[in-house]
Design goal:
Layout (H helix, E strand, L loop, with lengths): L5 H15 L10 E3 L5 H14 L6 E8 L6 E9 L12 E8 L3 H11 L3 E7 L6 H10 L1 H4 L4 E6 L4 H15 L3 E7 L3 H13 L4 E10 L1 H4 L2 E8 L22
Parallel strand pairs: 1-2, 4-5, 4-7, 5-6, 7-8
Antiparallel strand pairs: 2-9, 3-8
Helix pairs in contact: 1-2, 2-7, 6-7
Length: 252
């Protein structure tokens, strides 16, 4: 299924769900490997399993990827609100845009231009292995956006959904009375899981995405890294288990 048609991909799962759904409806247990999903697919699948079927978040595993610090995509094909994440906006409020930045500056900048926010908070990922070269490249790659007025930069963890949820919660508390909130997920997949956990508690928030025109050789030449486990099975709609933490299992 083409990457720009995630709604159709999730629809295929819906057609076969009766044949593969867990037999124990009270305590369903699903393991989801998100390594091959695009972020839009991932959001759509989590919405179906958690928000529509009310199953709670599954056990999630993810094999990280390594690549040279360079552009991963080129151009912008389309900017859209992610299906089922349209939010609820007040015309009387201004807009705060939260962008997870990486190596795809054109896509992030296009979203910023599209929504013309009164305030922008850019979340730059701290490198997994402590390699500051990745961080410096991400900041240099997005220098046009970061140089705009009313743009603030904060650092976030690469692989902790709970940290992302808490970061977004603090931003929400800061602006909920005065502004609408839009999120652009251009960081890691575990960060996207954290965005979804936050959205479960705040469905008024809108999630937007810009699709690339093409992928670069750096993207196509990625190599697998460590496999990590995101233990989210105790997280239900509207509640967060205080024991929910990120854990690393190493190579699996």
């Amino acid at each position: 299924m083409p990457a720009r048609r995630p709604v159709e991909g999730v629809a295929q799962l819906k057609t076969i769900w009766k044949r593969c759904r867990p037999k124990d409806a009270e305590e369903p247990y699903i393991t989801l490997d998100i390594s091959g999903f695009s972020k839009v697919y991932l959001l759509g699948l989590l919405h179906y399993l958690v928000a529509e079927l009310n199953m709670g978040l599954p056990r999630i595993v993810h094999t990280t990827q390594t690549y040279a610090p360079s552009r991963l995509t080129q151009g912008v094909h389309q900017i859209t609100t992610v299906a089922n994440f349209f939010g609820s906006f007040s015309v009387e409020k201004e807009t705060v845009l939260v962008l997870f930045l990486g190596f795809e500056a054109e896509r992030s900048l296009s979203v910023w231009k599209q929504f013309n926010p009164s305030r922008t908070i850019c979340l730059v990922t701290a490198p997994r292995d402590g390699n500051e070269e990745y961080l410096r490249y991400a900041e240099k790659n997005n220098d046009v956006l970061l140089a705009q007025p009313n743009v603030e930069v904060r650092r976030v963890a690469a692989d902790s959904p709970y940290h992302i949820r808490n970061t977004l919660e603090s931003i929400w508390e800061e602006f909920k009375a005065s502004a609408n909130m839009i999120i652009g997920p251009f960081g890691t997949k575990p960060q996207t899981v954290g965005i979804f956990v936050f959205w479960l508690e705040h469905p008024r928030v809108q999630i937007v995405y810009s699709f690339p025109s093409e992928y670069t050789k750096s993207y196509l030449n990625r190599k697998p890294g460590k496999t990590i486990v995101l233990p989210l099975t105790n997280v239900n709609r509207g509640t967060i288990d205080p024991k929910f933490q990120f854990s690393r299992t190493g190579d699996l």
